[in-house]
Amino acid sequence: MKPVFSETAPTEDEKTIEFLQLDDNNPIKWEYTSAVGDRVLIAVRSSNLGDEYLSAIGKKVMYLRNDLEEEEEAGLETFDTILLGDLPKMVFDSDRYIERLTPYLSPNGSFVLWTFIKDLNLDHLLNLVIKSYHLGLRVKVHRGNKWLGLKLEHSKDTAVNDISEAIRYVIDALNLHDKKQIQPYEKQISALLSEVMALKKELVDSYKKEEKLLQQQKKMDKQTKYLEKRYQALSSSKLGRLTLFYWKFRKRRGNR
């Protein structure tokens, strides 16, 4: 079963002004002003004012009204931005939730979410970053005051460097706010970064092997072409001799 969506109606300018008057460091303001494109899906609702702001500036705003099914379906409606609010706090397996929502994201679309540092489960956040990488989503980290924002953008060239950089941004952001909070996870983060570097090395080695195989293939192709030319020359030479023999034979028979 496909999820059911509902659309918002246009709203008054006064509420838009009220929304824009929110503090610039407000994570909800950052979330809603980060919405790009014409079609926006609000999967985890953060603010009525934010919804009305999007509608007032001409966005087509839809809501997710029931849980997603496990099965992906053909012909899904897609969105330019999917707003997830404080997803890590609202949904335990947020990485799995994003995986299930990804089919509804347009090819150039992005997820937008945030969480307060005090509520952060670093293990879950790192799992979310890694899952995003596997889904082909590039992670961009925004550092707020006492909160962390993430944009997960569709990318055709997501690389190992991106996930390593995203993890380092998360670590850097947490260190800026509360260095004590990251200390219990230092070993885990170090091991994860080592794993990323190992994966990077594995990819480089794989590219080198592939390049070597291509060079060998080119060499074999060159040798094959050389042999084909030799064969054609030899074949042509034999054919020429047979042709001359045939006409000489015909001439002798004609003189009898």
Question: What labels would you give this structure?
Answer:
alpha/beta, Rossmann fold, seven-stranded mixed β-sheet, 9 helices, SAM-dependent_MTases_sf, Methyltransferase
Number of strands: 7
Secondary-structure class: alpha/beta
Read across the widest sheet, the strand sequence of neighbours is: 1-3-2-4-5-7-6
Oligomer state of the chains in this structure: single chain
Task: Label the CATH architecture of one domain.
Answer: 3-Layer(aba) Sandwich
- Rg value: 31 Å
**Fraction of helical residues:** 40-55%
Protein name: Methyltransferase
InterPro entries: SAM-dependent_MTases_sf
Task: Offer a concise description of the structure.
The chain has helices at 13-20, 27-33, 48-56, 87-90, 94-101, 122-134, 160-177, 179-182, 186-254, and strands at 5-7, 39-42, 60-64, 79-85, 105-116, 137-143, 147-154.
General description of the model:
The chain has 256 residues and is an alpha/beta fold. The chain has a domain at 5-177: Rossmann fold, CATH 3.40.50. The protein is 55% helix and 18% strand. The protein contains 9 helices and 7 strands; from the N terminus they run βααβαββααβαββααα. Strands 1-3-2-4-5-7-6 form a 7-stranded mixed sheet, sandwiched between helices. A hairpin with a 3-residue loop joins β6 and β7 (147-154). 24% of the residues are buried. It comes from Bacillus sonorensis L12.
